[in-house]
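Friendly challenge for the regulars: who can give me the structure tokens for this chain first? No prize, just bragging rights.
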Amino acid sequence: MDKLRAVLSGRDGNNDRNILQAANEASTLGWGTRVKGFIACMVIGVVFTFLGVCCLFIPKIGLILFIVFYTFGNICSLVSTMFLMGPIKQLKRMCDKTRAFATVVMITCLVLTLCAAFWWKIFALTLLFVILQVLAFAWYSLSYIPFARDAILKFFSMLCTMCVK
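First reply, four minutes later:
Bragging rights claimed.
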């Protein structure tokens, strides 16, 4: 209440804040609410993904439904982590130099999958984008595990050298 009075009377001495800090302060949630939001979004994401897999067996439209549900499931799963860290911190981590490329590829694949399914209606392109989406989301997720991407690269390079011999 004192802060509100100070702002309304023009005595707010905290003028050096930027708009992101102000938005972050205005949208802070308690830890319990963050966990509930995380669980809710993650459950919704898993349910969408599971529905997508179940839709694979529907004749004619099953694959398109899978692609759409799977994409929405990935979006919900990605948004769920924003509840734990906060949107600003999550966006900063997504744009960190170690995972910026993975983030761009993942978001691009999410958008292109939906564009190919709804607007362009090119089935082969949609399928290609969903495969790239799976790979990009896995690569992005591995960026949060220390040295996981290095281990995967080393494994595949070792596998390639074994196949060449």
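The radius of gyration is 21 Å. Residues 130 and 136 are 10 Å apart (CA to CA). Your move, everyone else.
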